[in-house]
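Hey, resending since the last one bounced:
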Amino acid sequence: MTEPDQKREEQPAGTSAAPDVDTLAETMTAAVPPPEAVQPPHEPEDGPSTLSAEATDAALEAEEALEALAEAEAAEEEAGGETVPGGQAAETAATVQDEAAPPTVSLETLKRFVLTPKLERKVAKAIDEEKLKKAGKLARRLHAADLADLLERLSYEQRAILLEVLREGFDPEVLPYLDENVRDDVIEILGPEAVGRAIAELDSDDAIAIIEDLEDAEKQAILEAVEPTGRALLEEGLTFPEYSAGRLMQRELVAVPSHWTVGQTIDFMRTNPNLPDDFYEIFVVDPRFRPIGLVSLGKLLHNKRPIRLRDIMSGDFVRLQAETPQEEVAHLFRQYGLVSAPVVNDSGRLLGRVTVDDVVDIVDEEAEEDILRLGGVSESDLQSNVLETTKQRFLWLLINLGTAIMASGVIAIFEATIAQVVALAVLMPIVASMGGNAGTQTVTVVVRALAMRDLSTSNALRVIWKEALVGLLNGVLFAVLIGAIAAFWFEPLIGAVIAAAMVINMLVAGLSGALIPIGLERLKIDPAVASSVFLTTVTDVIGFFAFLGLAAAFVL
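The structure tokens again:
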């Protein structure tokens, strides 16, 4: 018997033996690799990581210092060995480089920047100073989304110069991120042939989004530059209604028959070079290519190779018709927590898929559109020229002018009353302003509820009653406050009049803030567009009429 065995036998029952030191050392050696086996940090195979904004600026400072040092050394060589003061530049370069990058990663490996104001200024300055190689070098180190932002912020002339520098090897992924107006400029600068080659490398949904709003001649020129198979898919996608699932879907997907096994499916995906870059679910189809089930990648990998897909697929899934509006698509994804959904035609044949990243874009666009419409502007205002922006805003301002004239008409009715009691002119904007603000709060809540489908006929009356009650209670609270101020400022009777008018207008604001968007929704008018116009009219007219009418009745 060995010595360790004797020690185990001598151990009392019910206790565990303490591990032998030598045995423990052997175990640790096996579990923990020796220091020389630990690999140093290395750059990921799929490309460099992205720096933070602070690290980007630090790296830029390091490069500036290194460039200054190189220029100083070059000047020294040209001077025939005379000393040129480059020591400070060298010291700065070394210091900043140490701060910009970890010791295990050289500055050369930090290839990708994020767009910072400093980097933006450096690119613009390099373009203006005709240092185009430097501008291109900095721009190429940006992510596609950041490069799109950079192009949007440059002037047209700077943008054209930078695009010519980037023409060779232009990243197609930049195009989907661009604002529509800027994208038109980019397409014009690059030309149809280059754009056609670029969109051929994009997912079909991104490609359609880029070309769908172009002029017919320009669209046709770009499509002719795409290879025939890809062109046929794009042309078919353009036949679907705008803002529909057919326009939104990706044609790239994985579909397999139900009799395949897990092993066959895995082998197929390993050997097929045309798989989508990103996918989460596999569509199981019948012989007519109609989807009959879904298998998530997780479920596929958790099952053994001989198991058939029909035994593990989920038959309970949402199918989208190609004509389904994108708002309905977004609602279904949000309601049921979908990751992807198949898109089918009228006969049920699988056409493509909509993924959650596309839906996120829809939600962002819809939310942004509603916010901008409340102010009577559009998302293209920032990039549009002066005349286009003026034309877009003119109609909205004209409507507001009409509502202001209506409110002024109410004031004109009580012109004699105001002439006798000047205090009314001082106080009446308060009533209208408070009513407008209270109504805006209610409109915002109700419009959002309508957009999220949280408000329906079953709970509409409850919401209207609640908002009216909130308006009434706030009206009473602010009536006491403004009544006391007006009584102290002018006289008690005027304080009582403005208090009563405040209660009336706040109650009306709560009611109209709920009723107006609900009514517009029933009339198939976008409440986000028209609610604020009607609300302002109601609160101004009612506020002025209540305040001045009560004053005419009780003060004079």
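Residues 14 and 468 are 74 Å apart (CA to CA).

Sorry for the duplicate.
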